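W.,

You were right to be curious about this one. When I first looked at the sequence I had no strong expectations either way, so I just let the prediction run and decided to look at it fresh. Below is the sequence, 361 residues in total, followed by the output.
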Amino acid sequence: MMQIDLSVQHVLKRFGDFTAVNDISFDVESGRFFSILGPSGCGKTTLLRMIAGLAELDSGRIEIRGKDMAGISPNRRPVNLIFQNLALFPMMDVGANIAFGLQRRGESKSGIREKVSAILDRVDLAGFESKRIDQLSGGQKQRVAIARCLVLEPAVLLLDEPLGALDLKLREQMKVELKKLQAKVGTTFVYITHDQSEALVMSDYVAVMNHGEFEQIDTPQNLYSRPQTPFVAQFVGDNNAWSGTIRNCEGTVGEIETDDGFHFRSELHQPLPVGAAVDLFLRPESMLIQPDPSLPDLNRFEVVVRSTLFDGANSRLLVHPVNAETELLVALPQTHQYDYIQKDDTIEIGWATPSGICFPK
């Protein structure tokens, strides 16, 4: 049985009449990369601060490796917190930055040297002890900040949007670096972000947070392919959306009449009565361009191309249905077979019933 490094049970935090964190519960197993994903203001930083001991709980319980953290000050908790600005000491070299916490603990000079050297090796910065902070790249500074925390051997490392200040290319690189680093060192990471790509790429499990509550805790794959709420469907990945009404329901498949007059068959999140108002979601990559006429059971309709949104492997067509103004995104396969498609062309789109997901409105 896996050890639980962090257990949060029924945690509540209010600021006056505003509930920032509302009855949150979750466990993080040892060695996991666990992310909390949500928009600004959803309560994720408040939750992280309570875990770190920087904010008081109104009610609930936080345990780290089975020990209740009630009344335990931040400096005595077996956690470390990395902020977006990293807070490295510019007047100290890399070795001194990493050694700072060990010196405050009163450890011996020889022990500190050994630990600093060992942790730099683990984060692939061997021999960087005498480097100045201003000599480092953004990614190297990130690893020094992590090394400074890991050298103290925390049970849990808390990361508060640490990639937010980096440029786009470095952020993409650091997503992979952080994932590899966490797997290498084996420390439990709890990571908060508003960037869905960061959460999906790096995490073993992701909790999607909205208005102080968790909408779904799941693997990245399940969050993307099997969202449990409309918010998760919209927030995680790109989606096309229609509003409509159930005209017929057979088990988990419904016939939906959309507000702009289309009739689609789609998977339902739950059986729904005829006449129920619904929201239908469909991923851009689930939409087939000029599908083979022999393919059965596809929802088919014609669209007009507004533009091609070129983004390498993530290129899309921006389209709208004929006689409707709903904007839709259609993923472009990287085979160049659709390079002939131009602005104002009319093309056929098709999608299979299992690709859609429908929730009560």
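Here's what jumped out at me. Residues 30 and 315 are 38 Å apart (CA to CA). And, maybe more interesting for your project: The chain has eight helices and 20 strands.

Coffee later to discuss?

I.
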